[in-house]
Amino acid sequence: MGTNISSSSSIQPGNWSFILGAKVPHRVRVFAWRVCRGILPTLSNLHRRKCQVMDICPCCEMHAESDMHILLECDMARQIWSLSDLPWGIIAGWHGSAEAWIRHVAFSLDSVDYQLFLVIACLGMKIQSASSSSTTWNPPPNGVVKVNFDGAMLSNMCGVVAAREAIELVAHGGWQDVILEGDCAQVISKLRNPCTDSSLISSVVYDIKLLCSCFHSVSFSHVMRTGNRVAHTLARLATFSLEGSVDHPASIIPILVAEYSAVA
Ligand SMILES: [Zn+2]
After folding, report:
1. Could you tell me which residue ranges the Reverse transcriptase zinc-binding domain spans (predicted)?
2. Could you tell me if 44 and 161 lie in one domain?
């Protein structure tokens, strides 16, 4: 069956040569490692780590966003795999853990196809994350409150501080089921990630996660700038105000009406 890194010894537990020996970009090896360790920032993993999030897949909105769902089982993932010439029978012919799946494919494909498999899996997940970002504002489900935030400045620190203020506002309002939405992809990614990081904004991210623990459920949603116009406009107006804040300015009403009309 397999050759080189796909040798039968590579499927033995504790032997990580099927990842370490793969001739793929470093970030793809890191991705494969995270899959095998079960630390992908999927909604199901966040849920398992006691984060109060709704774990429904944002792509199909039908199943929990588990590792294997986002990598293989979601319709979006299947469409991505169908674009490759890799043998679907091997890719889909395993029903078990994500680590066992990768070991199975490493053993079953030759080196070149296996490396292509890793790259597609990594890119596929990025595509799914990007495609689940809406370009328009959408209302939350019944009983859930959505709060949009924007830092006005193109910096992660501004974005994450705005996110903390937004979640504090929701906490004071007494709402229990919350969607926190913004257009800063890196901030949303860090909020979704169950691991702590050492970036400059990590302490604020930690504050937000701590605040989120008091809600019944919280999810973090990325929206494109075009779907975050009200929050963006308010943030810009606040930047230019002497008080650093604005209170229901009339200039956002046309934007509100346009966004509401688009979804009504
Ligand atoms: Zn799905």
Report:
1. 13-81
2. no
Ligand 1: centre distance to CA 126 (Å):
14
Cα angle: 41, vertex 42, 44; to 5 degrees: 125
For the question of whether the overall pTM of this predicted structure is more than 0.70, the answer is no
User: Which residue among 80, 101, 131 closes a domain?
Assistant: 131
Whether the pLDDT of residue 110 is over 90: the answer is yes
Spatial contact of 178 and 217, defined as CB atoms under 8 Å apart: yes
Longest dimension (CA), the chain: 70
Is 140 within a domain? no
CA pair distance 69, 128, nearest whole angstrom: 11
Ligand 1 centre to CA of 229 (Å) is 27
- Number of separate domains in the chain: 2
Mean pLDDT estimate for the chain: 83
What integer is the mean pLDDT of 176-197?
85
Query: Residue 113: is its pLDDT beyond 60?
Result: yes
Verify that 115 and 181 share a domain, yes or no: no
- Which two structure tokens, joined as six digits, stand for 173? 């309002």
In the reported structure, the alpha carbon of residue 42 is separated from the centroid of ligand 1 by a whole-number distance in angstroms of 11
- What angle do the packed helices 202-212 and 185-192 form, to 10 degrees? 60
The CATH number that applies at residue 207 is 3.30.420.10
Amino acid sitting at position 186: Q
* Residue 105 domain boundaries: 4-131
In a domain, 253, yes or no: yes
